[in-house]
Every structure is written in structure tokens, then in C-alpha cells.
Amino acid sequence: MAEFPKRIDCGDFELVKPVATFAKAQEFFDVVIKNKEFLSRWLEWTDFYSKPEDAYNYLKTIEPLNEPSYLIQVGGNVVGGHGFVLFSEKHKTAEIGYWLAPQFNGCGIVTRGIKYLEDLAFGQLGINRMQIKVDVNNVKSQAVAVRAGYKKEGIQRQSYVLRGVPCDVIMYSKLKSEWEKGKVK
Question: Is residue 1 domain-resident?
């Protein structure tokens, strides 16, 4: 079974496994609520946070699990989330998911975070294919996938439902062989 590190140092930010403290839950909750209008355009899970206890219960649920989910922290403060929304050792595939407070957009945090997750998945955990699914209307997230070197495979029609509305996504992928070519320069 894959073992995911508790912390990944990315220089000016870090990816940290969630810890269930009320202080961290409050911080997580505050970022989600402050940016709820922006985040909820793409993420339905924001609907489930109406009080800090909701964030605490989420952190308490995932903390003991060996889940590939991380909080993005800048200066020790939560500014987003990053990790694998799907991870299959059996099929050697992983899907990356991410969210970021809008004031940190354009800093390269998510794109660089993807590189660290690729190093972990391709380099240490034996994954052969990584993918990113992006809503067809989320242009900024599409740009992240392209900057990270992912290839557009096509559109998955009505791939998910957001608040009762079927939505299309663009599938992007990168293979281990492509990652390896990028490492040799």
C-alpha cells in the first residue's frame, strides 16, 4: 500500500496532510467561507461548510486515513488544497485535484504542486498515468493543466453533476514516459 508523506516542502509553500485541530479547522473553514462564491462555481463540497465544526469533522475523518490529500500552506497558513482525488495502485493511475484561494492565483502554486505530486506518484509510487479533469468553463484550471505539461485528450460529456446540472469536463493526462522525458534535459 502506498505511503503518502505528511509534508512536502515546495519552497515558498508546502503541501501538508490535514491535522484535526480546531485551530486548523477554523483556518480551513475561514478560507472556504471567505472564497465560497469563487470556489462554489466549480466545487460542490463548499456547500457542506456552514460552521467551523463542519471543517473539524472533515479533518477528523481524513486525518487517520492514509489519504493522498494535502492542504496548501503559505507561511503556515491554509490557502488551498491539493492531492489525488483518485489513486489506484492496481491500475497505476491517479487523478489530481486542487483548489486555491483566488488571491494566490497566478503565483504558480498549483502548477508547481503538480510537479511535486508527479515526482511522488511517478517517481516513488509506481503510477503510470496521471490525469486532471477540468470543467469546460474553467479556463484558469485548464491553463494549469497545460502549463504542467498535460495533454488534452478530449471532452467527457456530462461527466459530473454540480447542484443538479450536468457538466462537461476536459480530460488531460500525462504518462510516466512523458514525465521521464521531461526530467532528462
Answer: no
Say what the pLDDT of residue 3 is.
85
Number of structural domains in the chain: 1
C-alpha cell at 9: 516542502
pLDDT tens per residue across span 155-164 = 999 999 999 9
pTM of the model: 0.92
Q: What is the DSSP string of 12-81?
A: SSEEE-----HHHHHHHHHHHHHTHHHHTTT-GGGGG-SSHHHHHHHHHHHTTS---EEEEEETTEEEEE
Domain of 53 in residue numbering reads as: 7-183
Please give the average per-residue pLDDT across 90-111, as a whole number. Answer: 96
Q: Read off the CATH number of the domain in which 25 is found.
A: 3.40.630.30
